[in-house]
Amino acid sequence: MAGTERLRWGVLSTARIGRKAVAPAIVRSSNGTLLAIASRDAERAGEMAAELRQELEPSVGTDLGSLRTCGSYQALIDDPEIDALYVPLPNAQHAEWTIRAAEAGKHVLCEKPLAMTASECRAMHDAASAHGVVLMEAFMYRFHPRIERLIAAVREGDLGQLRFVQASFTFTVADPANIRLNLELGGGALMDVGCYAVNAARTLMGVEPGEVQARARWSKSGVDEQLLGTLRFEGGGVAQIACSLAAARSEDLLVVGEKGVARLRHAFVPTGQTVALEFQRPPSPPEVIAFEPVDSYQRMVEHFGACALQGVAPRYDALEAAANLAAIEALYASARGGGVAVDVPPA
Ligand SMILES: NC(=O)c1ccc[n+]([C@@H]2O[C@H](COP(=O)([O-])OP(=O)(O)OC[C@H]3O[C@@H](n4cnc5c(N)ncnc54)[C@H](OP(=O)(O)O)[C@@H]3O)[C@@H](O)[C@H]2O)c1
Predict the structure, then answer these.
(1) Is 112 a catalytic residue?
(2) pTM for the structure as a whole
(3) Which terminus of the chain is more exposed, N or C, with fewer CB under 10 A?
(4) How many domains does the chain have?
């Protein structure tokens, strides 16, 4: 990679999140070039390339005329001119294709949740380490300045010892054919959006949960349509998470420490609006910090590029993702058992 100035990216599939957010972020990024798109169907890859040209060429001013398209994922993995792959496949396919890409010497930015289980995450981490490539989970929310500011405040002790975190991520999936409602493909509210709430709670607490409990409402297709969970952390902190694929949209984060409280609405997905992070730390007056819209996908892509091109250490590695999946697996075990307490094994 030495001497290469820009990371040459390929996108594995025509997934909506790639079309709408991450491929555009790669095109806009300061250190990446979008070189190719692969689909199981070459025509679909061509349609996505045409859509990106139409939407991005006028606004970004980048010539996407040479964007390549492939009719199979393996063809993209085998392309020697590709340095890095973005993998937005259904969750159940993340591990297989990430490992194939790593074995071919490609860096991988893989969508959240990184895999189905902690064990799969470890296998992905081992494959990336063995082949000397960067692997990161595409949790873009961690690259937004509002969350970076909140994490820094907690780390600096602004709120005192954390006692309680409440995190929700809910929205409605209307299409029964959506991958989120497909059990075989790794669907479910906890896998799709609850993973953010679990990740935020673990990150803010700074330690791992030891025990969890959850209750779920199951869809006809067998996925958790809604799940409410409690995570008990080393040191006495507690988190409550709520996630749903059948409720109005909410993305709220409440963080309560011994000395102060922080609140963040729109905690996860970037919005086109200013977002307020509120702190209450008596006797200081309440503080509200306004964050202008930022493309956290682009910030994530550029960080990943710096890791692959300059050897910067990834802020979050696949073992961190394994710990998230360990908590998720335990929450599912509890929900399937009707809410029994389940220990979280070390990841
Ligand atoms: N970070 C974020 O903000 C964010 C947001 C949304 C989703 N995601 C994550 O991104 C991933 C994709 O989500 P999405 O909503 O964008 O998915 P989607 O639009 O349903 O696309 C999934 C893609 O996977 C490919 N695929 C391969 N086998 C498939 C199968 N058996 N059934 C359906 N599709 C199959 C298809 O591409 P081809 O037909 O081209 O091969 C399809 O376009 C998930 O892991 C999700 O958790 C992340």
Answers:
(1) yes
(2) 0.97
(3) N
(4) 2
